Amino acid sequence: MSQNKYLIPLHKPFWGKDEEKAAVMAMRSGTGVGDLNYSELLSKEISQIVGSKYALPTGSGTASLELAFALFLNKGDEVILPSFTFSSCANAILLAGGKPVFADIDIQTYNINPKDIEKLITKRTKAIMVVHYAGMAADMEEINKIAHTYKLIVIEDAAHALGAKYYGKYLGTLGLIGCYSFHGTKNAASGEGGAFVTNNSKINKIAEIIREKGTNRSSFMRGERGKYSWVRVGRSLILSDILSAIALVQMKKLSQITSLRQKKAEYLLTKLRSLSSKIVLPQVSQGTDPNWHIFAIRVPKSSRSRIVKELKSYGVEASFHFLPLHTSVMGKQLGYKKGSCPITEEVSSTLIRLPIYPQLKNSEIDYMVEVLKKIL
Question: Which of 109, 272, 306, 376 is least enclosed by beta carbons within 10 angstroms?
């Protein structure tokens, strides 16, 4: 088998002429600042699709998380979250004066383990942050039960999960607040961008003030007041109208994007089953209708680096993923030690992400599997 028969990237945005046209129209119709026409249309589109009462476009998924914790976190409050996630999650807690408390994950779903959550609850625990890894749902039924019992807030980091469902409801709408991402690597992509969603009118009202530098400009833009002013401490978290225009087109394509990804994942799963004695295949968590943002396999720790390197030599851009937050430099500064989240450490050291995106051809999937067989 000759090397580099294909060059298969890990990600590829599902962009076309419609996105180009939308960006140009946004540039011609305004200054590109946030909360103009396209931002308003995007907000309505997100709410309509996922079924939330409110949606606020933000500059990034990270900005949505920071907005969420700026709303209610006080100094010293603890938030339980998985260690198997991106630094943005812990940063959002720390920036609001809180303390991240790292929980372990489930070995099959790679999502936060409800049993570990309950062990970590203290008098200072204020919230649980759920990260729906790869677009697979965490056990929201059990997590919401725990939250109800201990009177905790549930924040969903659904950056991976736009378009994915849990027992028929969209991920990101099952807690008090949901946070989405339109990063260039995400299923619906505008390069940078995100969204904050909630069904709580009071939270939405405060959130739109915080995201607009602490002003009531959003109310002014709706014609509800003659001028706007500074009313509380805030941040600059709004999304450019140009990027909102691109995200709007992507949201209109979301069902198509999700369907195509599901078909690619099903085909890839079928092809990889012959290797199931040598690799661990992804498993769909109970109740989940996934969006297949990530297709992750696991291999023996001792051979992972070699496998990734050889896949790349054949033109397949495979990759590792999250390094555990509790073993990071910052994690150690917070007092965490190796061994506190053993499943996270196991998954992090054995996981490989394979390319998956709507434009991926079956012939390219066949090639990836052929390469994997050769390497293994």
Answer: 306
Four-point Cα dihedral 82, 107, 181, 361, nearest 10: 160
Q: Give Cβ neighbours of residue 80 (< 8 Å, ≥ 6 apart).
A: 101, 102, 103, 112, 117, 120, 121, 125, 127, 128, 129
Q: Which residue has the tokens 């933000």?
A: 58
Instruction: Provide the sign of the torsion angle of the four alpha carbons 288, 297, 161, 82, taken in this order.
Output: positive
Q: How far apart are CA 215 and CA 289, in angstroms?
A: 39
- Gap between the Cα atoms of 340 and 338, Å rounded: 6
What is the domain range of residue 322? 254-375
Last residue of a domain, one of 252, 277, 292: 252
What digits encode the pLDDT tens for the residues 15-30? 999 999 999 999 999 8
Tokens 């070699």 appear where? 306
Q: Which amino acid is at 329?
A: V
Q: Per residue in 230-286, pLDDT tens?
A: 999 999 999 999 999 999 999 999 999 999 999 999 999 999 999 999 999 999 988
The whole-angstrom distance between residue 204's C-alpha and the CA centroid of its chain comes to 20
Same domain, 168 and 270: no
Backbone angles phi, psi at 202, to 5 degrees: -65, -45
**How far apart, in whole angstroms, are the C-alpha atoms of residue 252 and residue 99?**
38
Out of 252, 283, 315, a domain closes at 252
Question: Can you tell me the distance from the alpha carbon of 58 to that of 35, in angstroms, rounded to the nearest whole number?
Answer: 10
Domain count, the chain: 2
3-state secondary structure of 283: coil
CA distances from 148 to 98, 126, 154 (A): 21, 12, 9
**Does pTM surpass 0.70?**
yes
**Which residues are bridge partners to 105 per DSSP?**
112
CA nearest neighbour of 16 among 249, 244, 256, 251: 249
CB atoms within 10 A of CB 128: 27
- Dihedral (CA of 192, 185, 176, 72) sign: negative
Cα(237)–Cα(267) distance, integer angstroms: 39
With 0-12 / 13-18 / 19 or more C-beta atoms within 10 angstroms meaning exposed / middle / buried, residue 200 is middle
Give the model confidence (pLDDT) of 26-77 as tens digits.
Answer: 999 989 998 889 999 999 999 999 999 999 999 999 999 999 999 999 999 9
